[in-house]
Amino acid sequence: MPTTNIRGxxxxxxxxxxxxxxxxxxxxxxxxxxxxxxxxxxxxxxGYRVMLHDRRNCGLSDVVIDGEDSEYEIWADDLYExxxxxxxLPAFVGGSSSGCRxxxxxxxxxxxxxxxxxxxxxxxxxFACERxxxxxxxxxxxxxxxxxxxxxxxxxxxxxxxxxxPSNRDYLMRLDPQRFIAVMARWKKSFDESVxxxxxxxxxxxxxxIKVPAVVIPGNDRTHxxxxxxxxxxxxPKSELHLIWExxxxxDLTPAEDWDPKNDEMAGYFVAMMKRAAA
Length: 279
Description:
CATH superfamily of the largest domain: Alpha/Beta hydrolase fold, catalytic domain
Distance between the termini: 33 Å
Largest sheet: 8 strands, mixed
Strand order of the largest sheet: 1-2-4-3-5-6-7-8
Oligomer: single chain
CATH architecture of the largest domain: 3-Layer(aba) Sandwich
């Protein structure tokens, strides 16, 4: 797979499909691009080119703990630059969970580059903010405080990043633990400040300002509650809501793999919107 330097980070990416309008899909959590490969193929089969990539700090891309913006704002700007370098703008942009946040921020920060939004498993509310802030940031802050950067590299996510790409371990071990803690704390703050927002990272005014069409497919667990997706759809002016689950499951997080059998159904909703937007 090709790589390219995006704003100081080596990014691993792949293009699915040979021709047609451009789409970018971003997986949830800190999963690698394989998390949306099935959906990307279903969309590509209908005549689109789909950009996939491992975000910085994910998959086979570089670990870079730096930046003044929130992590998902950094991801949004990275995606813009990756698409620009591949002459793939404007594009339809979408994602699940953290990928959904990235996509919304892409539309807000680069409105001229976004043709439409494909959003599923939308995150918002106190439970999601507190759970994700702990999982994404606080556990690593605690590790760095107690055991320095060596302790950070022994936790699952960063251990996997170091094993997949040894230069990531070299980078982390050179990093000043206090610098690491400061950046992680700043990234965590963006979640702490989203507790009362309709979705993590975007206010009601932000969502109402989005001018492109959107498809919103709510999630089905306590982190990606159905009510959050419905609220987002009600606030984005040109949005359409599609429910593919009957109710929320009684769980903090349903496995992302549970969504794989829904790829064809989701692709149908997304492609229908993109065709209408193109027309």
